[in-house]
Structure formats: C-alpha cells, structure tokens
Automatic annotation (TrEMBL):
A GO MF term: ATP binding
One Pfam family from the record: ATPase_2
Record's signal peptide: none
Domain ATPase, residue spans: 39-166
Protein name: ATPase
Domain of life per record: Archaea
Species of origin: Vulcanisaeta moutnovskia (strain 768-28)
InterPro entries per record: ATPase_dom, P-loop_NTPase
Amino acid sequence: MSIKWRLENVIRNIAKIIRGINVFGSGIEPNIEVDWRSVYLVDLLNALSKNLYQIVIAIDETQILRMLKGFGKVDLTQILTYTYDNLSNVKVILTGSEVGLLHGFLGLENPKSPLYGRFIEELTITPFNRDASVQFLITGFRQYGIEVTMSEILDAVDKLDGIVGWLTYYGKY
C-alpha cells in the first residue's frame, strides 16, 4: 500500500468532518471546494512548504482524529512525523480538551509511535481562578460592546468553574 493512497484516504476522511477554513485576520471564511480524489496530503504540504515562507496548521480537538486510525485508514501521526522531519517551515499546533486521549493518540512516549522521541512544546491552560474568570468575561464583553450585568457574569463563573474553553464559549454565545 503506497503512502499516497493511504494519505488520499485520510484526506477524504478529514474532508468529511472539516467545517471550514479560517484565515486569521482576513475577516472572511472562504468556501473552498476541492476534488479530494485528486489531492494527496504530502503533495499539498510540500507545495505549501515550497511556496510560503512559513505556514501554521492548527487542529482543534485533535484527539478526535484518532478515530481515523484502523483497518484501511492511515495513522495521522505518520503525516505529522513527515511534516516534522521534512518541512521545517510548516508548524503544527494541536489542541485538545481531552489531554489524556491527545497524548495517547500522539504516542510521544510510545517507542512504536512514529512521533516517539520528537521534541514538542506543550502549553497547558489551567482553569482560571474566580477573579480571573470574572475579568476575562468583563473584558471580552467590553471588547465586543455587549452589556451584561455583574450577576450574569458571576452566575456564569460559578457554573463554568474557570474552564477557559467554556468561558470563551459562554462569551461568544
């Protein structure tokens, strides 16, 4: 089984779950249609690497991608390893709310994992304390010109327990 065939299947599987592409700072969310049958991820990454000074690929809730693993599917860690080893101007940011599953998926401490022994930078975001949670929501609402009572903010802080993702989600909706 060639790596191109396997990567093509990964792209097809990923394309089924991608909701969109966000270009930071552009104020737009482009609608891009691609014939996924003719795209190979390694070729795409190589082309991006050759034509851009630096590219950052950010994948949120990365632990979900572990479901692509299995019979007839590709271990996405192989793609990450290829990128790490061969494309120095491509940076990958992986985020996840289920840290244990994310670590298990990446297999950084598993000698059988393609990513074993590779250096990573890890940033752990701990829950905010009560005061930081209140200030976070006040600042966010102020930045967006939304008026909220202090009792609403305190109620949200009590329920969301300082978890940054939930505070952000609350502030957004």
